[in-house]
Design brief:
3 helices, single chain
Length: 67
């Protein structure tokens, strides 16, 4: 438990950033109808399953179109 307390100041901001990125990505997916690759369901699954930064980052790298 002592080791966790040492890393807590670093983990809390990462968790907050991860959660905000996930929410932002899901909102973006739900608002847009056109995708270069795949469809809405596919990107929601990838984003939610790959929740630890990988899913949202993949979406914005591979899929996001210019608004």
């Amino acid at each position: 438990m002592e080791n966790l307390n040492e890393f807590l100041p670093f983990l809390i901001p990462l968790v907050v950033i991860q959660f905000r990125l996930l929410v932002y990505t899901i909102v973006h997916i739900l608002k847009h109808n056109h995708y270069k690759r795949g469809n809405r369901t596919l990107w929601l699954i990838i984003t939610i399953i790959g929740m630890s930064f990988i899913g949202p980052i993949l979406y914005f790298i591979l899929e996001k179109e210019e608004d």
